[in-house]
Amino acid sequence: MLANPVMTASGTFGYGTEYSHIFDIQKLGAIVCKGTTIEPREGNPQYRLAETASGLINSIGLQNIGVKALIKEKTPIWAGWRVPVIVNIAGETVDDYARLAKELDGIAGISGIEVNISCPNIKAGGAEFGANPDSAARVTAAVKAATSLPVLVKLTPNTSDISKVAIAVAEAGADAISLINTLKGMYIDITIRQPLLGSKTGGLSGPAIKPIALAMVYEVAGAVRIPVIGCGGIAAASDAIEFFMAGASAIQVGTATFTNPRAPLDVLEGIEQFMEKEGIKDITELIGAARS
Ligand SMILES: Cc1cc2nc3c(=O)[nH]c(=O)nc-3n(C[C@H](O)[C@H](O)[C@H](O)COP(=O)(O)O)c2cc1C
């Protein structure tokens, strides 16, 4: 159970330490750290970021320090924090995810695992694990079997039926679902007549994706009984409240942090002000309010 429903989104808040001098990060509901892989990764070739209308396309390519360094360098710091830290994990095979979950199990300073299933499944020709209910369920079951930590499964919007994937991961034992990850996008630099990003395509995030994320959260919250965490273009308290009304019981703030590093705290304070103004005693009064 979180102290409040505002979390940071993976890949947009580093390991939390980078922001601790900017505002009191201990006030947040939870911090989700950068995507973590078994081995350290240098990420994709430049460029890795392109700004679009109301959005951002990134192809960072999971640059991270690897699970061993994370355990050695970051978790001792997190263990002294009041705010829970959730480790986001990424793999190329089901076994990668299981190994990561096992390594993180029982380590002080880690309160949960968020499974990024937007990664290419190397054994299935590179399709995202989360594009298909069966592979999404296989990853979920393998992670659950390898850890006693709470497991959040983060869905990709790059699938034809997100509810089917949500139901499959819930049945496979997920404790909660977070959504959405980025949408596949491209930016072409017309002066060089080539895609700007080194990896050609990337993931679109920011206000441009909020209506899509909201519709998907609404759909998934109607399909599963486990908690749903909304993410996608949340920059202000009003955005977060829309996600609660769609059925999310918590939210994550991502890209907004790049233009306003205090965005997660601003969103939290704005939610509290809204609740006070509207005479709302408990956030549960808002959750699913738009569903009846
Ligand atoms: C630069 C960048 C890096 C990201 N890295 C990860 C990651 O490592 N793992 C992950 O699950 N999601 C990652 N995401 C996706 C975000 O956590 C979030 O799901 C997405 O950006 C939508 O939310 P937003 O519009 O609030 O940013 C990343 C997003 C951005 C912009």
Kindly report the spatial arrangement of strands forming the biggest sheet: 1-14-13-8-7-6-5-2
Silhouette: globular
Estimated structural class: alpha/beta
Please state the CA-atom Rg, rounded to the nearest Å. 18 Å
The separation of the N and C termini measures: 26 Å
Number of distinct helices: 8
Strand count: 14
State the helical fraction: 25-40%
Bound molecules: flavin mononucleotide
Mean pLDDT reading: 97
Largest sheet descriptor: 8 strands, parallel
Beta-strand level of the residues, as a percent range? 15-25%
Uncertain runs are: none
**H-E order:** EEEEHEHEHEHEEEEEHEHEHH
Polypeptide structure, described:
This protein is of the alpha/beta class and 292 residues long. The protein is built from 8 helices and 14 strands. Strands 1-14-13-8-7-6-5-2 form an 8-stranded parallel sheet, with helices on one face. A 4-stranded antiparallel sheet has the order 3-4-12-9, with no helix packed on it. β7, α4 and β8 form a beta-alpha-beta unit. The longest helix is centred in the C-terminal third of the chain and has 16 residues. 51% of the residues are buried. The mean pLDDT is 97. Flavin mononucleotide binds next to β2 and β4. Flavin mononucleotide (FMN) binds next to β2 and β4.
